[in-house]
Design brief:
It contains nine helices and 16 strands. With 367 residues, it is α+β, with helices and mostly antiparallel strands. It has one domain. The longest helix has 20 residues. Bound molecules: 1,3-dihydroxyacetonephosphate (2 copies) and magnesium ion (2 copies).
Length: 367
């Protein structure tokens, strides 16, 4: 029997702005899953990253399962009630549709799912990022799956020598899923050419070319495409299977020491370095910086072990200091140039109105 891992994540309200969900909200979410879950799933974990609540289910129902997705949706509706009772900010922020239909894709919550036949040992990583969008994982995934500077297994392990197949989605295309499949190592320059544009091309999944097994699943939601306006950043989640024919855990984590600049930060309209933080971390400086959490698990017969909080280690304290320095450096130039996203990516309707008004005031000088 195959095991399925499903992460379904939403911002349903938080304390003091876009900072962190309340304890009462988190408790209600856990209680609801316990009482309504029945035997639908074999295991489940609830955690927060910034203002986002993520539910990790382990089950045997396959991906895009209606009952699992409905349970998550109903849980978020229930959590939203607490957010309203407590007057939390942005209650129900990511629940963009009124009625549930089939699965939560396209309804606001972010989803990443993997279905596989369990290996005798099945370690995996669960990433959640806040104040950024799915393209934030592009560079780390490229480096940990295609670059021997981060993945020594590409040199040392025969199990990875055939490389990986990247499935990349054009998230600006809204009529359907527009995807391209490219192979490493032959096509790494083509992959890089696409992945440089984090706002348009996003790694959706990665497969081992040795076994055909899926290693990675990333949520590719663009809330802007669903709502037609700014309703919060996309705050992506990701599952990565590790070890054996996949990169080692440390190889997947390695690129997060860069603190690369990603879109998001204040009002989803800036660039900022991605800071690896401990689970249940809050948001602070300039509604950021953009953060990423990572929990390691093993799953066996659908049962999850306790998680290991991989960025809770002295090494990452040093990285966090470096990232703070980078964030401060870029923030020093405020709204100017690369500190802010280009006009096409600005998430606020206000600036569109402003530019329209200003446009009328321009005059072309007579020669
Ligand atoms: P194993 O030899 O236990 O698989 O460990 C290799 C490894 O992944 C070290 O990073
Ligand atoms: P979230 O997408 O995390 O809700 O953040 C929105 C925002 O505007 C932060 O300034
Ligand atoms: Mg929010
Ligand atoms: Mg958020």
């Amino acid at each position: 029997m195959n095991t399925t891992l499903s992460i379904i994540k939403a911002d349903i309200g938080s304390i003091g702005g876009h900072i962190k969900p309340s304890q009462r909200l988190m408790e209600r979410v856990r209680e609801y899953l316990k009482t309504k879950g029945g035997d639908l799933f074999t295991d489940c974990r609830v955690s927060s990253t910034g203002d986002d609540v993520a539910i990790l289910f382990s089950h045997h129902q396959g991906t895009l399962n209606e009952e699992i997705h409905k349970l998550a949706w109903d849980t978020f509706i229930e959590g939203t009630e607490v957010a309203k009772e407590q007057g939390l900010y942005g209650a129900g922020q990511d629940l963009l549709k009124d009625a549930f239909s089939g699965n939560v894709k396209g309804m606001g919550p972010a989803v990443a799912e993997l279905e596989f036949e369990e290996r005798p040992n099945e370690p995996f990583l669960f990433f959640a990022a806040d104040k950024t969008d799915p393209g934030a994982y592009n560079l780390p995934l490229f480096l940990s799956f295609a670059d021997p500077m981060h993945n020594s297994g590409l040199i040392l392990s025969p199990k990875m020598s055939k490389g990986f197949r990247f499935v990349i989605m054009d998230v600006s295309y809204v009529q359907g899923d527009r995807v391209i499949e490219l192979n490493t190592p032959e096509e790494i320059y083509d992959i890089a050419a696409l992945l440089r544009d984090n706002e348009r091309f996003v790694v959706e999944s990665i497969y081992s070319r040795e076994t055909g097994d899926q290693a990675v699943s990333v949520s590719t939601t663009r809330l802007h495409n669903i709502a037609g306006k700014y309703t919060g950043k996309d705050d992506p989640v990701m599952l990565v299977r590790v070890q054996g024919g996949f990169p080692a855990t440390g190889e997947v984590l390695s690129p997060y020491n860069i603190g690369h600049f990603v879109a998001g930060f204040m009002r989803g309209s800036h660039n900022g370095p991605l800071m690896p933080v401990k689970k249940n971390s809050t948001i602070s400086y300039f509604d950021g910086p953009p953060v990423v959490t990572c929990q390691a698990f093993c799953v066996h017969a659908g049962k999850l072990t306790e998680s290991v909080d991989v960025f809770d280690h002295p090494y990452w304290d040093w990285v966090r200091n470096e990232v703070s320095r980078k964030a401060t450096e870029l923030r020093r130039q405020g709204f100017s140039g690369p500190a802010m996203l280009p006009y096409s990516e600005l998430e606020y309707g206000g600036i569109v109105e402003k530019m329209k008004k200003l446009d009328k005031k321009f005059q072309v000088r007579e020669k």
